[in-house]
Amino acid sequence: MKDEIRIVFMGTPDFAVPTLEALLEDGYHVVGVVTQPDKPQGRKKIMTPPPVKEAALKHGLPVMQPQRLRLPEAVAELALWEPDVIVTAAYGQILPKAVLDMPQFGCLNVHGSLLPRYRGGAPIQRAIINGEAMTGVTLMYMAEGLDTGDMIAKVEVPIEPEDTSGTVFAKLSSAGAQLLREQLPLLLAGEAERTPQKEDEATYAPNLTREDEKIDWQHSSQAIYNRIRGLVPFSGAFTLWEGNVFKIWGAKVPNAGQSSVGSETPGTVLKLTDEGIEVRTGDGSIWLSEIQPAGKKAMAAGQFARGGQMKPGTVLA
């Protein structure tokens, strides 16, 4: 039956690749892949295909890259593939009703949170920024609302104290692919569960803005640390030094009793050593371990400290 079911896969980033690979490894007939358009990357703005496109082409699969899936011509092109089921994972566009109604077995989504918590486009980053100790993946039916469809199954994945968005993305990517592997045969046999979400328990994870990336030194050391690791390895958190963006890619919070106590303004640089840069926070201090001054590459904060460009007493804004 697997090779008789026509599957269209929709996804864009690395997160989605294991799910596509799992479908192919399990012998399903993936008739085509829909992903976001190529985008310019790096300082030279080289047009770069999404990871899902690269994976699809490796397997010889046809690829669609509509600017907007809801345009009639995009819907018509998709309909030519005659999908029996559509599987999405971090595709990045809302599916219109015409697409949701297209496959007989429905549209399924591998979502990186334990729904109904963290609906939206940045569930993994928001969970880490908010200091959550647990997240997971939900396999769900897609509906017209934002991640509002009925749930099929979930799997929990812990967020360790030193996890970043990058490490949690990898965990959830693998967990999501495995969850689909387990549930898709049940769904096609009409045996999968279907559980409505509880609207009163819903929370949201909107896409990150520039303001989300800026550190507020008045916050606690733990909150600042969570924000930094929640933005690694993607956009990165930043502060301002001498009016320029000063990115922070790594940090650590001193153990209880080891954080310096003082009356300095939050954001004040307290020490610069081979260990890094100690900065005053709203409730103590935090050590920056990897930084990136404007116009330069990321480097160990200890290496930067040895350069003598920044002095104790400097206030980061």
Chain-wise SSE layout:
Elements: E1 6-11, H1 17-25, E2 29-34, E3 39-41, E4 46-48, H2 51-58, E5 63-64, H3 72-79, E6 85-89, H4 97-100, E7 107-111, H5 123-129, E8 134-141, E9 151-158, H6 165-188, H7 210-213, H8 221-230, E10 237-241, E11 244-252, E12 269-273, E13 276-280, E14 285-293, E15 299-300, H9 301-306
Parallel strand pairs: 1-2, 1-6, 2-5, 6-7
Antiparallel strand pairs: 3-4, 7-8, 8-9, 10-11, 11-14, 12-13, 13-14, 14-15
Family: Belongs to the Fmt family.
GO molecular function: methionyl-tRNA formyltransferase activity
Enzyme class: transferase
Q: CATH homologous superfamily of the largest domain?
A: Formyl transferase, N-terminal domain
Binned strand content? 25-35%
Instruction: Tell me the name of the CATH class of the largest domain.
Output: Alpha Beta
Q: What general form does the structure show?
A: elongated
Tally of separate domains: 2
Given the helix and strand composition, which structural class is it? alpha/beta
Q: Mean pLDDT score, rounded?
A: 95
What does this structure look like?
With 317 residues, the chain is an alpha/beta fold. The chain has 2 domains: 2-201, Formyl transferase, N-terminal domain (Rossmann fold); 210-306, Roll (Methionyl-tRNA Fmet Formyltransferase, Chain A, domain 2), CATH 3.10.25. Helices cover 25% and strands 26% of the residues. The protein is built from 9 helices and 15 strands. The strands form 3 sheets. Strands 5-2-1-6-7-8-9 form a 7-stranded mixed beta sheet. Strands 10, 11, 12, 13, 14 and 15 form a 6-stranded antiparallel beta sheet that branches. Strand 6, helix 4 (97-100) and strand 7 form a beta-alpha-beta unit. The longest helix is centred in the middle third of the chain and has 24 residues, at 165-188. The radius of gyration is 22 Å and the shape is elongated. The model has no long low-confidence stretch (mean pLDDT 95).
